[in-house]
Design a protein that fits this description.
This protein has helices at about 1-25, 40-50, 65-70, 85-100, 130-140, 155-170, 200-215, 230-235, 250-255, 260-280, 285-290, and strands at about 30-35, 55-60, 80, 105, 120, 145-150, 175-180, 195-200, 220-225, 245, 295-300, 300-305, 310, 315-320, 325-330. With about 325 residues, it is an alpha/beta fold.
Length: about 325
């Protein structure tokens, strides 16, 4: 009897080892939802290398017509994915994620118009309900009196909601502009404001900061998480020195592991979560129940999965100093 039990245990152990080795040899298929301004691949490849995983990375551009995207997706039914980058992109993909049961982790998507709307889309960030309130609180603490919030028309699902929550949370008035490009502000009078919040992609945010400073703006510049990219510093130069930017993750933990870029850090931890699902043999339609309330510790910090597939975690503000992002203060 004991010998039979030992044989069964041995068979089970060998089978599990074989399964892990097989997945590493054949590779796990991961979709990378890319839009031409995404660095997710770097984080995915680094996690795979450091954990000896063979990943077959399939890049699908989301900046093409949705009917073209849908021609590709049926080949990857029941796969896991990283991305997309923006809330607007994620919202357009939701029906197709559900149709083809593709479970996507979009680490930087934060809009309440998207998060919690599907059991096939997860983020590694807290909701914009928190970010908006913390941005307003920072303006209050810094004694800002006249603030202009400049938002991105190209990602209106995100920017419109963030400003709406900011306005509802604020006891003082906030002006708002929606733009497609910095050129639309060539005749704008920045000097009437002592602060501005840039709810813009990093590249555009840098261009707006440059323009504002040239036109006499002398106040404090703030940025939402959307502005936190290397492109902000590359395009903004000296104009963004001292800029205060919202960071969705734990900055001290990121830098401890050599990460500065949110996309790279987010995609690294996204694959960490996905590998937890795959190695536990969880199907994409079972991912929600598996993840609910689960706690992870990654290079973005420690986080717990909430019922809407956002996470609870520590966040930070960071500063631009000497042409790089540095820690400022923890946002509780």
């Amino acid at each position: 009897m004991k010998q039979s039990i030992l044989i069964i245990v041995l068979v089970v152990v060998v089978s599990l080892i074989a399964l892990v080795l097989y997945s590493k040899q054949t590779g796990i298929t991961i979709i990378n939802f890319e839009d031409g301004e995404t660095n997710f691949r770097i984080g995915i490849e680094r996690y795979a290398k450091e954990n000896n995983l063979k990943v077959q990375l399939v890049t699908i551009r989301v900046d093409q017509r949705i009917d073209e995207i849908e021609k590709i997706l049926p080949r990857y039914t029941n796969c896991y994915a990283v991305g997309p980058r923006t809330s607007t992109e994620a919202l357009s993909l939701l029906p197709y994620l559900e149709k083809y049961q593709i479970f996507a982790i979009a680490p930087l998507v934060t809009s309440p118009s998207v998060i919690g709307k599907s059991r096939f889309l997860m983020t590694l960030s807290a909701s914009d309900n928190l970010q908006a309130k913390e941005l307003v609180q920072r303006l209050r603490e810094d004694l800002r009196k006249n603030t202009i919030v400049i938002c991105d028309k190209n990602n209106v699902v995100y920017s419109e909601n963030l400003f709406k929550i900011m306005a509802q949370s604020s006891s003082f008035p906030l002006d708002c502009l929606y733009i497609n490009s910095a050129d639309e502000l060539l005749n704008f009078d920045f000097s009437q404001y002592d602060s501005m919040v840039l709810v813009l992609d990093g590249r555009v945010a840098g261009l707006v900061a440059q323009l504002a400073v040239r036109k006499g703006f002398k106040g404090t510049i703030y940025g939402s998480d959307y502005a936190y990219t290397d492109a902000l510093i590359l395009t903004g130069g000296l104009a963004v020195e001292g800029m205060i930017v919202y960071n969705l993750f734990d900055f001290s933990q990121m830098t401890k592991f050599g990460f500065i870029d949110l996309q790279e850090a987010g995609s690294y931890d996204a694959l960490m979560v996905i590998w937890s699902l795959i190695s536990s043999k969880i199907r994409t339609d079972e991912a929600y129940n598996y993840l609910l309330g689960k706690k992870f510790t990654g290079i973005t910090g420690t986080f717990t999965v909430e019922p809407d597939l956002s996470v609870s975690r520590s966040r930070n503000f960071v500063l631009v100093k000497n042409g790089q992002f540095v820690g400022d203060e923890v946002a509780k």
